[in-house]
Design a protein that fits this description.
heterodimer, A: about 250 residues, alpha/beta, Rossmann fold, 6-stranded mixed β-sheet, 4-stranded antiparallel β-sheet, B: about 450 residues, 10-stranded mixed β-sheet, 10 helices, about 35% strand, Fe-S_cluster_assembly_SufBD (chain B), SUF_FeS_clus_asmbl_SufBD_core (chain B), SUF_FeS_clus_asmbl_SufD (chain B), Iron-regulated ABC transporter permease protein SufD (chain B), ATP hydrolysis activity (chain A)
Chain lengths: ~250, ~450
């Protein structure tokens, strides 16, 4: 589904991704771990199309198409979703209105008819249950004055509504208490399917207790230096990142 | 017919000559106190002259191009009801008064409120027939000593509206004043003058809108005086969706007694050169004033909003929010003055001005001015001028919303803080439509 090869990306003069390779198939959950500054969030941003980054070489192919050639909105319409580490506050635009616009723009891109108000509300009700989100939150300005937990839950709700093929969760666990974490993870798990893939970017193993990955990758200095099964996350939790750093530097 | 004086090279001389000419045709009324007042206003205008950018209040608004245009002082127009159809605001009901080139046209207007609720008369009739009332109110609030344009209007105004709301009355239909400049044949100027006197515990909604018809330039110099007696309430909206060749200078002067509430929204969507002055004197305890503003110049348009709140008595409250979206090579000015007098303890005054500049060629000048002479007050002010939030745009795009649509959605939401304050639904919907259209262009 997603094929990243030799990806180099920089912000300004600073190169952050330095030859990253990754293959993801439908149905899989991949965890990307690594110390601070390794490039985890950069990878998430580059995949979603954030314009602050310059991709200097390499390629990203998503479902046979060149992802790097697409605007962020086209990537979304093709089925990429980024759950933000710090969701942005959008004053004056309610979650409902925002999602209705987004969903219908995506449908337009795919040549589908717009959902009318009734269909949209029905879909919304269905997905609200999935992430245990309250109607009153959805009528308010998007993310404005939301608590950390509400913002993250809202991200997962948006994901549920847009039903992406590839979801990228960028540090979704940061700032969440254990109850909120469980609700968020629960929502993600309910959305798992053989047609969809998930990338979980996280610093800690904690989230992976709830969203169990098929593969764990360690990102360090802009490259994946180690990959392994889910047990690798436990090892990292126990031993920290220093041994990985030492291994990587030795090469 | 009034001679047009278009042959005068100097606009000021042209205006002075017109005044003298009118005066010569007067009989007994020349000696009346009202006419003496107009004479003194004219003298003041003559002395002050048009302001230059050296004048502190006009630093960023240059009227040079305005006074160099040749305007006819002609009030005649062949406008018919049919010509007005395209200008109608859908679903708008209430007292709708049309003024063409500053002159009231009863045949185009309709007054639906019963006279027990509100007396709506033309300024021209009132100044002839009701000299006592006009003597007590006309030019008693809007100061013409320091303002050339108010002085000019005070001297020259021939028509407009006079609204009187008796005590303990709610006017259930809004009063809509539509000032149409018929510039289909030549450049036209007019000097409308309005007076609104609201009795104790009475309530009214009023809107002023300005439109020019035709390709030529227009210049409207309007003064509206509003007096709220104690416990009175007013919703007041000023709407400018003008042509690209329209000049507008307007002063709304508000005088509030104890526990009166004044809510205003000043919306400027289009116009070549617009200056809105909103001056409020809170001359009563627990008087409250709410001021909202929205301006969206593009092209080479210029919009200047000057507000002044004078807290003259203790325990009064004012709250102000002006928002601007500036595109292309447009310029905007916001000057907000809050004046708290020594006696006005326990004043609460809040002011905020937020602007989004969409293009490198556009610019905004903001100047909050607080002059506080009392010690137990709460005042705050803040201005921001910036670009559209890139993070917000990216966030929206990452959900599948195309860039232009995301931009429109964000700016529309930005404008809603002001537009949602307008309680006359057809006007709000009309404005929302114009804003949306302007944003998607």
């Amino acid at each position: 589904m997603l094929s990243i090869s030799n990806l180099h990306a920089s912000i300004g003069e600073k190169e952050i991704l330095r030859g990253l390779n990754l293959e993801i198939n439908a149905g899989e959950v991949h965890a990307i771990m690594g110390p601070n500054g390794a490039g985890k969030s950069t990878l998430a941003s580059v995949l979603a199309g954030r314009e602050d980054y310059d991709v200097t070489s390499g390629s990203v192919v998503f479902d046979g198409k060149d992802l790097l050639d697409m605007a962020p909105e086209e990537r979304a319409a093709e089925g990429i979703f980024l759950a933000f580490q710090y969701p942005i506050e959008i004053p004056g635009v309610s979650t409902t209105n925002f999602l209705k616009t987004a969903l219908n723009e995506i449908r337009k891109y795919r040549g589908q008819d717009s959902l009318d108000a009734v269909q949209f509300l029905k879909l919304m009700k269905e997905k609200m249950k999935l992430v245990n989100i309250d109607q009153s939150l959805l009528s308010r300005s998007l993310n404005e004055g939301f608590s950390g937990g509400e913002k993250k839950r809202n991200e997962i709700f948006q994901m549920a509504m847009l039903e992406p093929k590839l979801a990228i969760l960028d540090e979704t666990d940061s700032g969440l208490d254990i109850d909120a974490l469980r609700i968020v993870a629960d929502g993600v798990n309910k959305l798992r399917s053989p047609e969809r893939a998930t990338i979980v970017v996280t610093h800690y193993q904690r989230l992976l207790d709830y969203i169990v990955p098929d593969y764990v990758h360690v990102l360090y200095k802009g490259r994946i230096v180690k990959s392994g099964p889910k047990e690798l996350a436990l090892e990292l939790e126990e031993k920290g990142y220093d041994w990985i750093k030492a291994e990587a530097e030795a090469i | 017919m009034t001679p047009s004086y278009a042959s005068y090279n100097d606009f000021k001389e042209q205006l002075l000559a017109s005044f003298r000419d009118n005066e010569e045709r007067m009989n007994g009324e020349r000696k009346s106190p009202l006419h003496q007042l107009r004479r003194s206003a004219l003298k003041q205008f003559e002395q002050l002259g048009f302001p230059t950018i050296r004048h502190e209040e006009w630093k960023y608004s240059n009227v040079n191009s305005l006074i160099k245009e040749n305007f006819a002082l002609d009030t005649a127009s062949s406008l018919t009801a049919e010509d007005l159809v395209p200008l109608e605001i859908p679903n708008l009901e209430g007292n709708i008064l049309y003024f063409v080139n500053g002159i009231y046209h009863p045949e185009l207007s309709r007054i639906v409120s019963p006279s027990e609720q509100v007396q709506i008369t033309s300024f021209a009739d009132s100044i002839k027939a009701d000299t006592e009332f006009m003597g007590a109110h006309f030019a008693r609030y809007a100061d013409y000593q320091d303002s050339a344009f108010t002085a000019l209007n005070t001297a020259m105004a021939s028509d407009g509206v006079v609204v009187r709301v008796p005590a303990n009355t709610t006017v259930d239909q809004p009063i809509i004043l539509r000032f149409i400049t018929d510039a289909r044949i030549s450049n036209i100027t007019s000097q409308p003058r309005n007076l609104v006197v609201i009795g104790k515990n009475a309530e009214v909604m009023m809107a002023e809108s300005y439109r020019t018809l035709g390709e030529n330039s227009s210049f409207v110099n309007v003064v509206t005086e509003i007096v709220l007696d104690r416990d009175a309430r007013m919703q007041y909206y000023k709407v400018l969706n003008e042509t690209a060749k329209a000049y507008h200078i307007g002063t709304t002067q508000v005088h509030q007694a104890d526990n009166s509430h004044f809510y205003s929204a000043s919306i400027t969507l289009n116009g070549q050169f617009v200056r809105n002055n909103l001056n409020i004197v809170l001359n009563g305890q627990h008087a409250e004033a709410f001021m909202y503003g929205l301006y969206m110049p593009n092209g080479r348009q210029h919009v200047d909003n000057h507000t002044l709140v004078d807290h003259a008595m203790p325990n009064s409250y004012s709250n102000e929010l002006y928002k601007g979206i500036l595109d292309d090579n447009s310029t905007g000015v916001f000057n907000g003055k809050i004046f708290v007098r020594p006696d006005a303890q326990k004043t609460n005054a809040y002011q905020s001005c937020k602007n989004v500049v969409m293009s490198p060629g556009a610019s905004m000048n903001t100047k909050p001015q607080l002059e506080i002479y009392a010690d137990d007050v709460k005042c705050s002010h803040g201005t921001t001028t910036g670009q559209l939030n890139d993070e917000a745009l990216f966030y929206m795009r990452s959900r599948g919303i195309p860039k232009d649509e995301a931009r429109t959605l964000l700016l529309y939401a930005f404008s809603q803080d002001v537009l949602s304050q307008i309680k006359i639904k057809p006007i709000r919907e009309y404005l929302e439509g114009v804003v949306r259209e302007k944003l998607t262009k």
